[in-house]
Amino acid sequence: MKKKIAAGLVTVMSLATLAACAGKTSTDAKLVTMKGDYITVTDFYNQVKSTQGAKQSMLTLILDKVLEEQYGKKVTQKETDEAYDKEVKNYGSSFQQVLAVNGMTEETYKQQIRVQMLLDYAVKAAAEKELTDDVYKTLYEAYTPEVTAQIIRLDNQDTANSVLAEVKAEGTDFAKIAADKSLDEKVDYNFDSAATDVPADVIKAANALEKGAISEVVSVVNTSNYTTSYYIIKTTAKTEKNADWKTYKDRLKEAYLAQKKADTTFQNKVIAAALEKSNVKIKDDSFSSILSQYAATSETTTTSETTTASETETSEATTK
Questions:
Q1: Total-model pTM
Q2: pLDDT, tens digit (0-9, with 9 covering 90-100), for 130-153
């Protein structure tokens, strides 16, 4: 699936271009002239600086500079170029149109990708520091190794109840019914409790079943589009859990890092630490609140002095 270009970084790159131009000229330089009047850089700045878009832009500019200074050497330009080329390939012939709709250039989109890569690295580095043996042991306790299951996915509760009765009837072939009735072409799955390609509730249900047992109907809401799917699971094989947690160390680490990468609160703590390290100070009252969401995640106040910025500001600024 093709990803949308992050709105939070779209605005910042456009205004960053303006700021760069302004930096080469006087703040009194005329941007627009007309009969008997004109508009200067200062006029424009004063007009837009209190808007939500300008605040979002300033926030992302700060993150760009802070993360580049602290982690720029950890993410090579080659890696950024490769990630950019992959995105271009994903969009195909529509790439230029997507850039135009979002008011971006190839260069500003590449910069957006780099900011996200730097943040991902910072989050990974912070998460790895937390992975002590005690943390690994806790993760191990909640971990279940690979299960093999056959899964039927349906989009209607009544249909799911009917199919459930059918598969539980004596002498029926679950695999055949699954192939005929499931909305997914694939019906045979192998997964552990850290898998992400199967819904968590389905994994939990499969792990709770004995070998050969069939679940009740499991309903799962897709939070991206709020549609509900209905699953029927038959566990066909279970792997015995090794008593030594170190057997699963790599897998536990992989799952933990993925969890932290998706954790907005943890991400904000990482950003807060980076802002503090760079001693960021807001000098214009129009932007006094833009870092307060990060101050709320640590014991030290980074720069903000007023009310907490909206959750939208936070998520958009750090979106991929």
A1: 0.74
A2: 999 999 999 999 999 999 999 999
Host H or E run for residue 31: strand 30-34
More confident residue, 1 or 263: 263
The β-bridge relationship of strands 37-40 and 30-34 is: antiparallel
Q: How does pLDDT run across 60-108, given as a tens digit for each residue?
A: 889 999 999 999 999 999 999 999 999 999 999 999 999 999 878 898 8
CB 293 within 8 A of CB 38: no
φ, ψ of residue 18 to 5 degrees: the values are -60, -45
Tell me if 161 sits within 8 A of 188, measured CB to CB: no
Best CA proximity match to 63, nearest among 262, 264, 278, 259: 278
3-class state of residue 214 by DSSP: strand
What three-state secondary structure class fits 291?
coil
Give CA–CA dist 318/119, Å, rounded. Answer: 8
In contact, 241 and 264? CB cutoff 8 Å? no
Q: What are phi and psi of 211, to 5 degrees?
A: -55, 130
Among 4-18, 142-156, 206-220, 250-264, name the one with the lowest average pLDDT.
4-18
CA atoms of 210 and 207, how far apart (whole Å): 8
Containing 263, the helix (H) or strand (E) segment is none
Number of helices (H), then strands (E), belonging to the chain: the values are 14, 6
| Contact in structure between 148 and 189 (CB atoms under 8 Å) | yes
Backbone φ and ψ of 231, nearest 5° = -115, 145
Strands of the sheet containing 227-238, edge to edge, are: 188-191, 147-154, 227-238, 218-222
**How close are the terminal C-alpha atoms of the chain, in Å?**
14
Helix (H, G, I), strand (E, B) or coil at 89: helix
Average pLDDT over residues 267-293: 93
Whole-number CA gyration radius for the chain: 26
**Is 239 within 8 Å of 147 (Cβ atoms)?**
yes
CA distance 53 to 18: 14
